[in-house]
Design a protein that fits this description.
four-stranded mixed beta sheet, alpha+beta, Methyltransferase, Cobalt-precorrin-4 Transmethylase, Domain 2, Heat Shock Protein 90, six-stranded mixed beta sheet, Arc Repressor Mutant, subunit A, 3 domains
Length: about 500
Amino acid sequence: MLQNGECVTLECKRAKSEVPKSVWETYSAFANTIGGVILLGIEDNRKESDIKKRFQIIGVDDAQKIVNDFWNTINSDKVNENILVSRDVNIVEINDVQIVCINVPQADWRIKPIYLNGNVYKGTYRRNHEGDYHCTERLVRAMIRDSFEDGNDGMLLEHYDMNDIDIDTLHRYRTLFQYRNDGHVWNEVDDKTFLKNLGGYTIDRATGKEGLTMAGLMMFGKGLSVQERFANFRMDYIDFCNLIGDERYSDRLTYDGRWENNLYQFFSRVIPKVTADLPRPFRMEGIQRVDDTPQHKAVREAFTNAIIHSDLLLDAGILRVEKHDDRLCFRNPGLLRLPIEQIFEGGVSYARNPKIQNMLRMVGYGENLGSGFPLILDAWKQAGWDTPVLNNKLELDLVELVLPLSAISENESNTTIEKKHSTENEDREKSREKSREKSREKSREKIINIIQNNPSVTQFELSNILQLSTKAIEKHIKNLKEDGIIRRVGPDNGGHWEVINDKNTSV
């Protein structure tokens, strides 16, 4: 540890004959960040640039006394919570001297913040590469919010009601919900009742007040209403692929007044963009080609996780998705609630926004029981790509997930991968073409079925429901119209579809 020098998880103190007062600030800082080790009996010469010369192991005079004093103090009212057990404090002998080694784990998110002297706003510390620092009131409030097991997105937003909902967004969601949950009783209720069932609208039994929840407004709200209530929160997608000359980016989606600035629209518009260039190897299930790969599912899971773990109330919080030639990046405001090792293992998940998590899960997005991150790791391993990197950006109060797109054998284009899985056998090629025809026919049948149930469905919604590109949907619609199976009644905006002949679905 000393060879690497003091860092975000290591603190050295001289502590010759007593427990230094600054130990408690470090205890609070480590507990509120990602944990760390305090070494007592190490002299640190910060002016020395050579790490090998910077630290001197001088030991302590009476290690057992220091340990006893430490336990007596930590069990007093000096700190609000003692999160240590006996094995966390040890006496270690090095070079014939004794030092005291104190391992401070990351505190459980339900008991943060860990603070000193009974004052949560003046006695709370966090850690960065500069050392311990006193938390601002804003950071303390964020930790207190995070301690609520039920999350924050179910709270009632006074003065925000159904007038603040973008009905088009809600109906797009309901179309997908109906497709994913055919026969569900919620499909028959009005918009307000549907939103209430989802957790997007609530009534305070104590006061009788009612209105949208944070989840309802953020998922389905009008852009102006979202901006008014959450002025510091922003959604941003940037594509840095295939740049030419001095181009800053090749595509960007940010709030510009041309779309409703809510989470569901952002998610629906960005998912096709961020997955468009992922390889789609040739794979069959029976007679139908399957284009949805484990990597596509993993990217959707990563995006879902970024949304459900975002701290929507942080100042200057940005939910950001970046697409690069060699990687995908997902960033969300708010640090990880769980230690990174526990997230990699899976099995446990505590979303900051459980209502939003449920809304996405009801239409097929998001894994259960903490299996999402292992799913991502497995998908990347199957593809032969580098291991995903999950980072707590402590200084920025955000989490970053990087998904490398580099394969073990050079980055292969979709065409190369397709060729690798193809054969020169003419009979097999004919079989594939028949399978493609079957797949196209199946898609046409699904489009007809959806139109019959929802004549007002848009091509964008069809793309979202069937996980097909908008170009593929446009082609299907064009062919169906030319074949005399469907027709458009009224204008593109405000009109509806009519099925003329649903029996003729030949390609």
